[in-house]
């Protein structure tokens, strides 16, 4: 829906005229503005566009504009019946999609900009909407949402009638909450003494929005066509009104200039003032290396267009200064429901207005309580019964480690303040950037040069899963075939997750127990937790861990004797859901909340943790919020008479009601999507994988049971990627697609630059269908991530771009 460039051109000023209601004088305001630019702004080409219009052709607004103003006036979609567009379109059985409407509009605006370039002049285009700000378009979508992807500056025409103050302010707030800039408000004063114009001028002045007041439109009731033309011509030529329009024109030109200047200078100013995360600033050779974003909507960023050469610059002066870039990293894995989602924006505004900030210690509020109950219910895990709120994924895992270590120390009568108590984890895992979370990961590029890092743990190696040459391959680490067995190949991903059918793995268990025996029995080390990301290790390089190994690891640590004698504090009659061995922490910050097609990634393993950490998708990408879910037996470890026995961890914004309410809205929407037709379309692509190895020839599209795996990325594309000679493996599960590229130098991991060329090729190709693709790399791994609301046609477009650029790279490698 948002695969169009943002509305900002050097040679064209385009504004969108919205009305606070119908019948407020939008067309007259548009005519005044157009006529002023024609008569008093030398060298301007003036255009008028009505994207959607209803009513007889004779009454069409563009004909009115041509009569009094510019000759270049057009309607993109005209429906004969004078009713709301969604009804008029339905009666004519022609309902253009939102995408069709906005693509037609952008094409017309680009043509206006191109015409201005050819005439060595400026262009001014007025885009007038139908009805009010939230009046429905042909599809039924509110117009402010249809046109939001291009985010043209708005000129709002206020309502002069009784009650018009409220409707005008409400209209302005509707635009603001959707991320529009309101450049000006026009108020007609009908002389009835209602005071709307005076009040609104003062009100909007406090908002930093200029308001322009005009005398009311003459009453033309009973006038002939000739009389009407004469009266209105005089009205439009009136010097006072033209002076008001002059002030408005100056305002619009100044705002346009400020936007252009902002886009031109942001990179340079950023290089002087900003210290970027995860960035070696020495690698930024110039400010041009800094991406400049104007806005985002749906799955697309609006990125500053940066020509690669002077020739390209000359060729594209008529193009928008912005171009759409598919958000291929889901905005660092947070984006769940599309940028600028109006439901989430409204939820944030509501909760901000209702609550603001609430101190949460010893208190409660409905959004936090509702979210806690929703998370516990969605996990379908009887072990989990308590929810602790924090602000990001790193602190969620740090709290989880604190919980687990306290529980283990208390049960085994260890003194963690005086002796080392470590964690068990997986090689390549990473659990966050706070010091405690860092210590729960092995040394890596993220932490090994952090001066306080100590790396308090042992990290197991494991078999990994990738598709190569059309087969799903479970491969042991190099040189560890004896411990894990030989490489195995599967025709279906479901078979890899069917750990019951794969059978108990005595090799895995024997290996894990032998390692623990050396660590615990021979070396005397103490361990207080198992922490791991279920299924896929994110920051570690999008590593798909064999689910059979992870399940076996959980089962072993729950039965392994991490103590030499039973401590006196152990519960003699433990419940079946109490933790045993050591507490198990699942870091689902990346993999949880529908990322892999399930509410919880733990369900893919068939085992459940004692502590579960969540963030990222929790608020749909709008606000920072995280949770750590824990069992009753973990909670009991902090029960005591002294305050020091409590979990003394918290943040000023713990369980802030705005984030909690947005999270409730986001999870409710993701739950709806998970059972909808779009996800069934994705799932249908993977039905073939199941059928290809079965006797059934029926390919009927049916909703897939929850015990089946699937991806938003098509199986055909994943298969083709797996056969590419530059690709050593590919994984696809839920919204995640990760491609491991072969490195000619033989290096891998974060020291490799093998994926950087493909990333840059995807980003810099702006002319292909769907705009460029913004992606991230992890060494020789490039990954793409959909949001939960991504449309199949958008992802197919990204797949086409990906295969094309990979083909170019493969061809170049073959030549060398």
Automatic annotation (TrEMBL):
Gene3D superfamilies: P-loop containing nucleotide triphosphate hydrolases, Type I PLP-dependent aspartate aminotransferase-like (Major domain)
Organism: Lophiostoma macrostomum CBS 122681
Entry annotated with the keyword Transferase: yes
Name the UniProt record assigns to this protein: PLP-dependent transferase
Family matches, as Pfam families: AAA_26, Aminotran_3
GO biological process, one term: biotin biosynthetic process
The UniProt record lists the keyword ATP-binding: no
GO-annotated cellular components: mitochondrion
InterPro entries assigned to the protein according to its UniProt record, in alphabetical order: Aminotrans_3, Aminotrans_3_PPA_site, DTB_synth_BioD, P-loop_NTPase, PyrdxlP-dep_Trfase, PyrdxlP-dep_Trfase_major
UniProt GO MF annotations: adenosylmethionine-8-amino-7-oxononanoate transaminase activity; ATP binding; dethiobiotin synthase activity; magnesium ion binding; pyridoxal phosphate binding
HAMAP family: BioD
PROSITE patterns, per database record: AA_TRANSFER_CLASS_3
Keyword line: Aminotransferase, Transferase
Compartments (UniProt record): Mitochondrion
